[in-house]
Design a protein that fits this description.
heterodimer; A: four-stranded antiparallel sheet; globular; B: globular
Chain lengths: 109, 117
């Protein structure tokens, strides 16, 4: 299965945009890119997913590189409630979700 | 409200005892999953079920058992054969499961924290 690489941790100031990167150089043409986040002592929460085009929803935006070897989750205005571990996952139909260790985001007031 | 419930939130077990963790969903999803999470680690798949009366082993099924007698319920039993059961257990569901498209998304419950005394 294709793997993803994310920084272990990132910091952001409150009310500023946050760009969380993810590298997936071995992505295949049918892999979907999913992002989930997990607040402390809670289950993961779906954030967004995409295949080729950039995607927006009420929580975040997903920017996908033209060659699909990397993607960026964008939180437009970080709040303290956005402090969480963010997982970037490639999902191929018929395969499992593989959750790595993700990026731990700290939001500074 | 639709969602996934897990109970109990905290569970303490003596060594050598079997315990059962509950997971219920009212999302009408076909597929359900059990994951284990250790401190500072990602999630590892224990078992999954695509449909009622069918389930498959995940990456770390040894010492665990499941049943899927109803679409909305997928209980996990941690047996005495599981040598290191202390962990955070997460249940999830998705509409189509592994037979679905890659865009199928998972919805998670709040988790059960199991501690072996």
């Amino acid at each position: 299965d294709a793997k993803t690489t994310q920084p272990n941790s990132m910091e952001s100031n409150e009310e500023e945009p946050v760009h969380l990167p993810c590298n997936h150089s071995t992505i295949s043409g049918t892999d979907y890119i999913h992002w989930y986040r997990q607040l402390p002592s809670q289950g993961p929460e779906y954030v967004i997913h995409g295949l080729t085009s950039n995607v927006n929803n009420r929580m975040a935006s997903l920017a996908i590189a033209e060659d699909r070897k990397s993607s960026t989750l964008i939180l437009h205005r970080a709040t303290l409630r956005d402090a969480a571990v963010y997982y970037c996952i490639l999902r191929l139909a018929g395969n499992q979700f593989y959750f790595g260790t993700g990026t731990s985001l700290t939001v500074i007031p | 409200d639709g969602g996934i419930t897990q109970s109990p939130k905290y569970l303490f077990r003596k060594e050598g005892q079997n315990v059962t963790l509950s997971c219920e969903q009212n999302l009408n999803h076909d597929a359900m999953y059990w994951y284990r999470q250790d401190p500072g680690q990602g999630l590892r798949l224990i078992y999954y079920s695509q449909i009622v009366n069918d389930f498959q082993k995940g990456d770390i099924a040894e010492g665990y058992s499941v049943s899927r007698e109803k679409k909305e319920s997928f209980p996990l039993t941690v047996t005495s054969a599981q040598k290191n059961p202390t962990a955070f257990y997460l249940c999830a569901s998705s509409q189509r499961g592994l037979i679905g498209f890659g865009c199928d998304t998972q919805y998670f419950g709040p988790g059960t924290r199991l501690t072996v005394l």
